[in-house]
Amino acid sequence: MKKESLKLQAYNIIKEKIITCQYAPNTLLNEEILREEINVSRTPIRDALSRLEQEGLIKILPKKGIMVSSLSISEINMIFEVRMLLEPYALRKFGYLMPEELIMSYYTKFSDQSQQYTMDEFFLMDDEFHYAIINVIQNRFLLQTYADIHNQNLRFRVMTGKIQDNRLSETIKEHLSIVKACLKKDWELAAQELCAHLKQSKDATFDLLLSGEAPLI
To answer: Taking a C-beta distance cutoff of 8 angstroms, is the pair 152, 79 a contact?
Structure first.
């Protein structure tokens, strides 16, 4: 296997384990153990760790080792703050770039009341929908910022581990309201509906965390 492919392989494996919390927040990782688990040499591991540190998923601590980054209430709040800034901005400024057939495909998905989604299916659809919105932004620096917080967003979703059935239903309705505004080309309304959706998602997340039903990290 080519050297660059080994670097990418190591990066993808470690990142996936962090995002899915197989490597939980505040866990200490050992470079030698990582080498044995992934079966690569030191160079790909170090390259992967350097990238993951830049993305905020790990911290390299002198004389201590490698620690998986924590994810606190404060950090979750910051994640929602970034989303509230970027996602509505994407619709207001660049919504007109969204292909109409893509918008229609989400209208079909969200309006089909006979469709029963599993949690995994729902989370995948939710991710795809929000990325369809954010990807219209014509600014690579903003897109990189969103990619970084998206990794953290996936982690706290895994850590909370659940979503109430009524919240799933409400989320689909909120998505449908956003899509309907997009189909009307009313980007200001679409942005407002998106803001309302993100606020509801944030409130539901904090209710779950503060209730003790999900762990505080």
So the answer is: yes
Whether the full predicted model's pTM is greater than 0.85, yes or no, is no
Cα–Cα distance for residue pair 73/142, rounded to 1 Å: 23
Q: d(Cα 181, Cα 193) in Å, to the nearest integer? A: 8
Sign of the Cα pseudo-torsion (2, 8, 11, 16, in order) = negative
* DSSP per-residue letters across 6-35: HHHHHHHHHHHHHHTTSS-TTPEE-HHHHH
Q: Using the 8-state DSSP alphabet, how is residue 97 labeled?
A: G
**Residues linked to residue 127 through DSSP beta bridges, in sequence order:** none
Residue 160 is encoded by which pair of tokens?
């909370």
Cα gap 110→213, rounded to integer Å: 28
DSSP of 33-93: HHHHHHT--HHHHHHHHHHHHHTTSEEEETTTEEEEPP--HHHHHHHHHHHHHHHHHHHHH
User: Dihedrals φ, ψ of 56, to 5°?
Assistant: 80, 15
| Residue matched to tokens 């490597």 | 23
| pLDDT tens-digit map of 5-58 | 888 999 999 999 998 888 988 899 999 999 999 999 999 999 999 999 988 899
Q: Cβ(100)–Cβ(203) under 8 Å?
A: no
Q: Are 155 and 19 in contact (CB under 8 A)?
A: yes
